C-alpha cells in the first residue's frame, strides 16, 4: 500500500480481493485514514464499490423460521431459541480475555508505577499494547458470534439489560465487563440493518427467566446458581437460558410491531453517563434505554463532536 508522504507500506491483512476489484474498475478508493492505537499503526480505506452494497451482499432470506430469542448470560455466553422451544444456537465457551490476562496486566501496571518519573514510557507502552490485545480478542470473538446469528436468522429478539446496574454488583461486575454484552447488541443491530433483517429489543422488565414458556406461569425469583427452570405448577423443566431465549422469541412475536429497532437512531448514553455519537456504544451498554433514556441536555454534552466517524481498521 502506497500512502502520500509515507511511501510504500506492507500490510498484514489480505488485500487480494480489493486489488482485483481495483484492477477491473469495480472499486474506487475514496480516502484513507491512518491511526495509531495500542502501539500499532492502522489504515482504514473508504471505497466506492457496487459489489459491496448492502442490497447485493446481504439479501434477505425468504425462508425465515420466525423470531429467535437471544439470551446472554455469565454461564452460557449466548443461547438462541425459537418460540416452539427449539434451541438453534449455544455458545458455552468464550475467551474471557480480561480474566485470562489479569495477572499480566497487574504485573505491567506495577512496572509502570515503579519507574522513576520521566522513564516509564516503555513500560506504559507495554501496558497499552496489552489492553489493545485484550480488546482485539474480545472484538473478534463478538464478530464471530454476531456474524453467525445474523447469517442464519433474519429476526432476532434481544433483552434490554440494565448493564450499568450489573456493573455495581461486585460479584458480577468483572464478568459483565469482560463479556461486553453491549458491544454484541451493537453489532447485531447494525448487521441486521445491513441484511435487511429485524432486531427487536425486549422490555427489560419482562421476566423471561422466570416465565414458563408453554403455559406463561411466572415462577419466583431464581438465583444465578440455579441453572434449570422448574415450574411449580406443572413440574415442567428446561435449561434456564434456553427457557429465557424461548420467552424472548414469544415476546417478540407479540410486540415487535409496537417498538423500534435497537440503536435505530438518536443519542446513545454509555455506562459512564456520557453521550456517544450516533449508534456507537462502549462495553457495558446495550441500548439507548440503559443508563437513562432521555437525550443529554445541550449544555451537558461531552465527548466526540457530532458527526465524528468511526472506521474499521486494517493493521499495517
From TrEMBL:
Keywords in alphabetical order? DNA recombination, DNA-binding, Transposition
What one GO molecular function would you report for this record?
Answer: DNA binding
Which InterPro entries did the record assign? Answer: Cas12f1-like_TNB (IPR010095), Transposase (IPR001959)
Write down what this protein is called: Transposase
- All copies of the Cas12f1-like TNB domain together span 181-248
**Probable transposase IS891/IS1136/IS1341 domain span:** 65-167
One Gene Ontology biological process:
DNA recombination
Q: Which Pfam families match?
A: Cas12f1-like_TNB, OrfB_IS605
Source taxon at top rank: Bacteria
Quick one: signal sequence residues?
Answer: none
Keyword Chloroplast (UniProt) = no
- Disordered: region residues: 262-316
Q: According to its UniProt record, which protein family does this protein belong to? A: In the C-terminal section; belongs to the transposase 35 family.
Amino acid at each position: 500500500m502506497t500512502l502520500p508522504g509515507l511511501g510504500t507500506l506492507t500490510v498484514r491483512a489480505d488485500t487480494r480481493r480489493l486489488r482485483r476489484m481495483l484492477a477491473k474498475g469495480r472499486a474506487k478508493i475514496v480516502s484513507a485514514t491512518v491511526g495509531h492505537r495500542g502501539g500499532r499503526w492502522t489504515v482504514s480505506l473508504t471505497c466506492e464499490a457496487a459489489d459491496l452494497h448492502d442490497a447485493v451482499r446481504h439479501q434477505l432470506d425468504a425462508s425465515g423460521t420466525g423470531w429467535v430469542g437471544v439470551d446472554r448470560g455469565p454461564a452460557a455466553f449466548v443461547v438462541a431459541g425459537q418460540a416452539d422451544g427449539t434451541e438453534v444456537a449455544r455458545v458455552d465457551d468464550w475467551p474471557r480475555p480480561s480474566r485470562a490476562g489479569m495477572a499480566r496486566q497487574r504485573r505491567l501496571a506495577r512496572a509502570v508505577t515503579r519507574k522513576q518519573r520521566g522513564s516509564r514510557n516503555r513500560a506504559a507502552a507495554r501496558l497499552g499494547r496489552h489492553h489493545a490485545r485484550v480488546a482485539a480478542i474480545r472484538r473478534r470473538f463478538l464478530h464471530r458470534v454476531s456474524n453467525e446469528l445474523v447469517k442464519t436468522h433474519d429476526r432476532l429478539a434481544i433483552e434490554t439489560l440494565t448493564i450499568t446496574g450489573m456493573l455495581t454488583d461486585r460479584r458480577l461486575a468483572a464478568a459483565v465487563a469482560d463479556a461486553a454484552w453491549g458491544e454484541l447488541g451493537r453489532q447485531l443491530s447494525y448487521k441486521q440493518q445491513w441484511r435487511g433483517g429485524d432486531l427487536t429489543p425486549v422490555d427489560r422488565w419482562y421476566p423471561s427467566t422466570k416465565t414458563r414458556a408453554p403455559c406463561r406461569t411466572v415462577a419466583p425469583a431464581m438465583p444465578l446458581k440455579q441453572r434449570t427452570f422448574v415450574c411449580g405448577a406443572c413440574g415442567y423443566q428446561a435449561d434456564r437460558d434456553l427457557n429465557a431465549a424461548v420467552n424472548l422469541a414469544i415476546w417478540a412475536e407479540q410486540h415487535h410491531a409496537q417498538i423500534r429497532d435497537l440503536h435505530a437512531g438518536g443519542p446513545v448514553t454509555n455506562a459512564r453517563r456520557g453521550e456517544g455519537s450516533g449508534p456507537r456504544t462502549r462495553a457495558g451498554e446495550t441500548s439507548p434505554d440503559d443508563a437513562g433514556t432521555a437525550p443529554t441536555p445541550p449544555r451537558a454534552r461531552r465527548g466526540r463532536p457530532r458527526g465524528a466517524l468511526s472506521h474499521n481498521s486494517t493493521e499495517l
